[in-house]
TrEMBL record:
ATP binds at residues 3-10. Residues 221-232 have a biased composition (Basic and acidic residues). This is DNA translocase FtsK. The keyword Methyltransferase does not apply. GO terms for cellular component: membrane. Coiled coil: none annotated. Keywords: ATP-binding, Nucleotide-binding. It comes from Anaeromonas frigoriresistens. Residues 1-170 form the FtsK domain. Residues 221-242 are annotated as: Disordered. PROSITE patterns: FTSK. InterPro entries: FtsK/SpoIIIE/SftA (IPR050206), FtsK_dom (IPR002543), P-loop_NTPase (IPR027417). It comes from the Bacteria. GO terms for molecular function: ATP binding; DNA binding.
Length: 242
């Protein structure tokens, strides 16, 4: 998903995540949100029980992406050992089901200088779909360096919102046209064919009201503040790393 500032990208992402959470009880999936605007855009979703990880910084994002690439390898090992080709066949054969995982990254262009993270994203885009791990990536800076050939080749669905110029439109959907859109959620969805659409405007307050029944108290919410005091279970052995 790509488009200039004011094109409606963040609002559309909010709508997608809200719908995923509302349908979470009917489907076996979990969400991993990476919000590189320091958590501002996705904060409303952070407490939902369907959000299994929430990253606000590049460092947090790298940790989650590394865990997920390990998960991809582990899943393919299970498929090999159990004579399965993908998650659908595995889940049909076994009572213990694998969950789908959806990684949603807002402003993934901020990772472009992080070589390891971009390589992981390229690998996830190339091989993770069959094992039930999916990517939704978005940017408001759609240049050729950000949307490189390997990512474009392995991302089958594209949403193009209004762009500043014809060049950016060609980078996103391979032809001009996005520069002529109205903005504010007016876009083109490209898969087997192209569909012009107008996305729904959903405010953060409305999204919160719709999903607040899924909020839970999470461990990271309850971490004790660093007061400088020693923990109650502290022992002398802790000085020796025991």
């Amino acid at each position: 998903m790509a488009g200039e500032t004011g094109s409606g990208k963040s609002t559309l992402l909010r709508s997608i995540i809200t719908n995923l959470i509302l349908n979470g009880k009917y489907n076996r999936y979990e969400l991993h949100l990476i919000d590189l605007k320091n958590g501002a855009e996705f904060n409303v979703f952070r407490k939902s029980k369907y959000v299994k990880s929430f990253s606000r910084t590049i460092e947090d994002a790298e940790k989650i992406l590394n865990k997920l690439i390990i998960e991809v390898d582990d899943r393919y090992d299970k498929f090999f050992k159990n004579d399965c080709v993908d998650i659908q066949e595995y889940n049909k054969k076994y009572r213990s089901k694998m969950k789908y995982k959806i990684i949603i990254i807002d402003e993934f262009a901020d990772l472009q200088n992080e070589k390891d993270s971009i390589q992981i994203l390229e690998t996830l885009a190339a091989k993770a779909r069959a094992c039930g791990i999916h990517l939704i990536i978005s940017t408001q800076r759609p240049d050729a360096k950000v949307l490189n050939g390997r990512i474009k080749a392995n991302v089958p669905s594209v949403i193009g919102l209004k762009t500043m110029n014809e060049i950016n439109s060609r980078i996103i959907i391979d032809h001009s046209g996005l520069e002529e859109l109205k903005g504010m959620g007016h876009g083109i969805y490209k898969f087997d064919k192209e569909i012009e659409f107008q996305s729904m405007n959903i405010s953060s307050g409305t999204a919160r009201d719709l999903i607040k029944h899924t909020y839970i108290n999470k461990k990271e919410e309850n971490k004790p503040k660093n007061t400088g005091e020693l923990p109650k279970d502290f022992t002398i052995g802790d000085f020796n790393g025991n």
